[in-house]
Specification:
The structure is a single chain. The chain has 253 residues and is mainly alpha-helical. The protein contains 9 helices and no strands. Helix 1 runs antiparallel to helix 8 and helix 2 packs parallel to helix 9.
């Protein structure tokens, strides 16, 4: 489900529970909202709010780590691609075809990531794409060096190509998303209980309804950002591909 759709559902659930609490405030008998009852309810809601804050912090930390890892993978991948191309250039004109394949592969990857199409992004994890990367490694292994210098450059190129492939797979795995849905559902349930209790202790009026509306909006935005950061190669909150674009402009020179 698109992240915006999930955020809208979260907003609807939380805001509806707040309005339900306001309705129950007018319907419950007075002794249900006596001092003793309110004290017990507040203690329970305080415990739930603490757990919700811990889970929210855990999700934010996890999403930030995923985003940072994908960003680091993209930067390192771009650096390794440039190093691979320069190593092949030093080897000699025999590697020209491999350099062309490398540039085409990078251009295709950028096009798929920036397309915004989940299907194209998913296709980057297909066996066919993996074989294209392995094809470059195979062509590097098939080179016939004529000197000690070329042998060293060949070995270096094979090593870099392996690193590039590994970092690419790491970035794609990070982009697949890792938000634990049971944890997210639990958090939303707790938020609904918390907002419902807020309404239960408050007399209905316009200011209170607007406050609940803003609180529900803020909560849904936080969850939306968590989901977006867990898919760092697509969506609104995405890692910058500027290093890869820069690498593409240098390749083949």
């Amino acid at each position: 489900m698109p992240h915006l759709g999930i955020a809208i559902i979260v907003f609807a659930c939380v805001f509806s529970c707040a309005l339900l609490g306001l309705y129950l405030h007018t319907m419950l008998p007075a002794h249900h909202l006596g001092d003793e009852s309110v004290s017990v309810i507040k203690l329970t809601i305080g415990l739930i709010a603490t757990m919700a804050a811990l889970v929210l912090g855990l999700l934010i930390s996890s999403a930030k780590s995923s985003f940072d890892a994908a960003n680091a993978a993209v930067v390192r991948d771009a650096t390794e691609i440039i190093l691979l191309d320069r190593t092949l250039a030093q080897y000699g004109p025999e590697t020209q075809e491999i350099r062309v394949l490398l540039k085409q592969g990078v251009a295709t990857g950028i096009q798929k990531i920036t397309s915004g199409d989940p299907a194209q992004l998913a296709s980057m994890r297909s066996p066919e794409e993996l074989k294209r990367g392995e094809n470059i490694q195979r062509r590097l292994a098939q080179l016939s060096p004529n000197s000690e210098t070329q042998r060293r450059l060949q070995a270096r190129a094979i090593q870099i190509a392996g690193d590039v492939l590994a970092m690419r797979e790491l970035a794609l795995l990070q982009a697949a998303g890792s938000t634990p849905m049971p944890l997210l559902l639990t958090l939303v349930l707790w938020l609904c209980i918390i907002f419902g209790s807020f309404g239960l202790f408050t007399s209905p009026n316009t200011t209170v309804v607007i406050t609940f509306f803003l609180g529900a909006i803020s909560t849904s935005i936080a969850i939306f950002l968590i989901l977006e950061m867990n898919t760092p190669l697509g969506g609104i909150v995405a890692v910058s591909l500027a290093p890869v674009h820069e690498a593409l402009s240098i390749l083949g020179q």
